[in-house]
Amino acid sequence: MLQVPLLRSWQINRQFWLERALLNGRSPAVTDHISVIHFSINKAATQYTKRIMLRCGVENELLAVRMNDYAWNKDFPFLFTLSEEELERYVHIFHPCGYLYTVFGGLVEGIPNIQDYRTVVMIRDPRDILVSEYYSYSKSHSSPRSAAKLAEFETFRAKVKDQTVDEYTIEASHRLKFRLQQYLNLQQAAPAICVLKYEEMIADFSTWLNKLLAHCQWQISATLHEQLLEEAGRGRRKKHEDPNSHRRQITPGDHKRKLQPETINYLNEYMAEVLLGFDYQI
Fold first, then answer.
1. Is the model's pLDDT at 240 over the cut of 70?
2. Where do the domains of the chain lie, and which CATH numbers do they carry?
3. pLDDT grade, residue 1 (50/70/90)?
4. Which of 244, 245, 243 is nearest to 235 (CA)?
5. What is the rounded distance in angstroms from the CA atom of residue 60 to the CA atom of residue 66?
6. What is the percent of the chain with per-residue pLDDT over 70, rounded to a whole number?
7. Which residue from 38, 85, 186, 256 could staple onto 102, CB 3.0 to 4.6 Å apart?
8. What number of H helices and E strands is found in the chain?
9. Higher pLDDT, residue 147 or 42
10. DSSP string spanning 116-174?
């Protein structure tokens, strides 16, 4: 009976060999290309953007470091949840050349000399994020494989299922505002940061992609470029909402269809600074 857990542990260690190497002080980078750090917010096309960046990173010889995925599978902390002091024991994994760090679900505070990296922040209208989170956490979001994180997630999911979308949105708005305020502060302090928007991705994927490539200083093949455009076109052709799908609803403005007017008014007032800071209309 012990063979299955042992096999699973071996598979995880093999899958995350690079993350373990970095944690152990080794740096197997093969290029001197500037490293890229990818930050996001859950439900801002996080995994989709990560997959795009992984494919582009490969063509630029960057090694992909997936610390969030590692933490999802192991009893290892999500780095963006740590204080600057707590991060000190892990800062050695960050190298300004040779790596693509993707994707962190919040700002990792305390990365030394972050201006030496090409940093990408992917955001979305926070009102739509909150609505999308509610349906994801209560229905479709995958579960972590770490036993401790799984127990915590199941408790959280049970709580969300007992809430209405408006109740969840108001309660979760405090956490989301904090994350977005961190990104807003980073944008104002660090001009090497590139903020990309979910809404821009949906409206004009080609321009969004070119902006991403230019900021990361990446060159990709014509074949990959064409594949990414064609795949994005297929994704935009989704018309019907599926509450049980991870990509439940891609059209911006979903909060106007799902939330009560008083909830929207609350969010507009409570999150005014980050909404206006990222040029979202109130």
1. no
2. 3-277 (3.40.50.300)
3. very low
4. 245
5. 17
6. 92
7. 38
8. 14, 5
9. 42
10. GSEEEEEE--HHHHHHHHHHIIIIIPPPPSSHHHHHHHHHHHHHHHTS-HHHHHHHHHH
